[in-house]
Specification:
306 residues; mainly alpha
């Protein structure tokens, strides 16, 4: 079974709830949902997400294990099992599924972040599982350095960067880490990046301008492709994380969108306008999976007048 089939039920529910579905692929997904309404994997996976959101972890785990039986190769199920076991404080099981998910997609940032959180909760450094996790891979090193940066564990991040040479990524992140360390030492709040008006020779501004156009046209396929490309070059840009999450949300990849948008908040630097966009997108995503409490929580974070 293909992973994407689980998204058909979400699209259909959006239609029933009155959310507009403009893209042709979303309409086709709705039709496919009607054809496979009784699909057991879809029902179990979607119900598991709902049960996890209301902290009914035992029920969510059982449903995800049923999905695992139906599709043993699904790294998405492994990832959700890892997160749910972690929330239920069953760290050994969480670790095993997190490693399995990372083996399937070693370059995935959120899979690695989940594993790091699980290891830290157990008080175990990542080095203790280096025989099972390819810590020497460049993409994994980059993601690990970013994760430690998000956690303000700057010395750990710098140690990783020192082993990566003079790459553009290592240089950019190293500057940001040293700037953060200087800010902490001086106990002053300084904007991480000066705000500049868009210029023709500014690639970040060009990316953002084109993404805003895709958002206006509701072209989520193009937005997803461009935001992924932009994040490879500029992984610390909060707007690109927001755009990626909005694209996934627009394509009804709701669970994934929530992970991306939650992570986007860690890159915000005094940008209330962008923060509002992220909160509204998260509210929409949580409404989709049937968690009005979380949706309301994020809507309450929106600052009026922006």
């Amino acid at each position: 079974m293909k992973r994407l089939t689980v998204l058909w039920i979400i699209t259909a529910l959006l239609l029933l709830a009155g959310y507009p579905c403009y893209a042709q692929d979303e309409e086709e997904s709705a039709e496919l949902f009607l054809e496979e309404y009784t699909d057991e994997f879809q029902e179990h996976f979607f119900e598991a997400l709902k049960q996890k959101s209301i902290q009914n972890y035992d029920r969510a785990i059982n449903l995800l294990l049923s999905c695992k039986q139906l599709d043993p190769q699904s790294d998405v199920v492994d990832y959700q099992l890892a997160k749910t076991y972690f929330l239920d404080k069953q760290y050994i099981q969480a670790q095993e599924y997190a490693i399995e998910a990372l083996h399937a997609r070693p370059s995935d940032f959120w899979y690695l972040e989940s594993l790091v959180n699980i290891m830290e909760q157990q008080g175990r450094p990542m080095e203790t599982i280096k025989a099972r996790v390819p810590l020497d891979k460049v993409e994994l090193k980059e993601n690990l350095a970013l994760i430690y940066f998000k956690k303000t564990k700057y010395n750990k991040a710098l140690q990783i960067l020192e082993s990566m040479g003079d790459s553009q990524f290592a240089t950019e992140l190293g500057l940001k880490i040293r700037d953060s360390l200087q800010q902490n030492k001086a106990k002053s709040t300084i904007s991480n990046q000066p705000k500049q008006s868009p210029k023709e020779d500014d690639p970040v501004a060009q990316y953002r301008s084109r993404m805003e156009g895709f958002l206006e046209k509701l072209d989520y396929n193009a937005l997803e492709k461009m935001s992924e490309e932009a994040l490879e070059a500029y992984p610390l840009q909060a707007y690109f994380h927001y755009a990626y999450g909005a694209a996934l949300n627009g394509k009804s990849e709701t669970a994934r969108a929530i992970e991306v948008l939650e992570g986007a908040r860690d890159y915000l630097f005094d940008d209330n306008v962008l923060a509002n966009k992220i909160y509204r997108e998260l509210a929409k995503a949580y409404t989709t999976i049937g968690n009005p409490t979380k949706a309301t929580e994020y809507l309450n974070k929106v600052k009026p007048g922006l």
